Amino acid sequence: MSIEKTEAVVLRAVNFRDTSKIVTFYTRRYGKMSAMAKGARNPKSKFGSLLQPLNYLQIVFYRRENRDLQFVSSSEYVRYFKSLTTDMLRLSIAMAHLEIINRVMHDEEENQSVFNLLVDSLTNLDTPDTFPKNVFVYFGLHLADELGFKPDFETCLACGNRIDLEKESKVYYVMQRGGAICEACFNRMVQVSSVTPVSASAISTLRSFTELSPKDAAAKAVAEPIQNELSNFVFVYLRKHSETLQEIKSLKFMVAALSPPVREAAAKDDSEGI
User: Fold this and answer.
1) 271 lies in some domain
2) 2-16 and 56-63: which strand pairing?
3) What angle do CA 53, 31, 77 make, to 5 degrees?
4) 116 lies in some domain
């Protein structure tokens, strides 16, 4: 057994027996892990309200190899995301981030890029003058890249040429293959199934989000209809590529924030998109 210290974001906390909690963290050094916090529900506990979802902490815990449940001994704030508690849309999107991370990441597999992506996303959601849907889109795109199913917005799957967005009004995205078909190729095809029409403006924004920093993407001015289209695209894309994301409880809050046509499309059982 060793005493370890690491940064961590609280993903989930459940009560255990009369006074304790079992907390799921996503940590910088150890990836996702669960730990017992003895006495955390006691009114005089040193943990106070620290072990609540969304809190970004430094934790000290007793670590034992090959053990599913560790023991956390102390914690303190690295950053308190105050704005997330006062804005329902930002809070809903933040909680969706936690749920996605909890579902797709394996226990005790370090991935500092994913940890930084999560912290950057929560930080930008907590920052005034950012666009919360932008944050979700950026998070989803870059998480997909980390998990090995990075979407391609540059090249047509059919002809292999770069898609010229100045000449295209829309492209047709094949979610399962992670690539697009240009309008000209689509019109020549006799039969095409399981494609999602995406506007050229949305594809242009998606391209930019693959290159921008998290901060710049969060602050990029994007028209609300395009924000909704992008949010729907990321919803569908993540669900199409991960069986663990077929049902996301936090999804209902995010979907409720979208315009009615997008809300209906995002709720489709077949997840084929707009």
Assistant:
1) no
2) antiparallel
3) 40
4) no
Residue type, 122: L
Residue type, 36: M
Q: Which two tokens stand for residue 26?
A: 């996503």
Query: What's the pLDDT at 79?
Result: 94
Question: What strands lie across the sheet with 179-181, from one edge to the other?
Answer: 179-181, 170-174, 196-199
> Structure pTM?
0.89
CA quadruple 214, 133, 252, 230: dihedral, nearest 10: -100
Question: What is the spatial distance between Cα 3 and Cα 73, in angstroms, rounded to a whole number?
Answer: 9
The closest alpha carbon to 75, from 56, 39, 49, 47, belongs to 47
The residue assigned the tokens 């920093």 is 213
Which domain-ending residue is among 58, 80, 102? 80
Separation of alpha carbons 105 and 120, rounded Å: 17
pLDDT in tens, 101-114: 999 999 999 999 99
Q: What pLDDT is stored for residue 61 in this prediction? A: 95
Q: Provide the domain count of the chain.
A: 2
Pick 49 or 193 by higher pLDDT: 49
Is 2 within the bounds of a domain?
Answer: yes
Domain shared by 41 and 136, yes or no: no
| DSSP3 helix / strand / coil % (the chain, rounded to 5) | 40, 25, 35
Same domain, 136 and 257: yes
Q: Which residue has the tokens 């995205």?
A: 173
What is d(CA 9, CA 237) in angstroms, rounded to the nearest whole number?
25
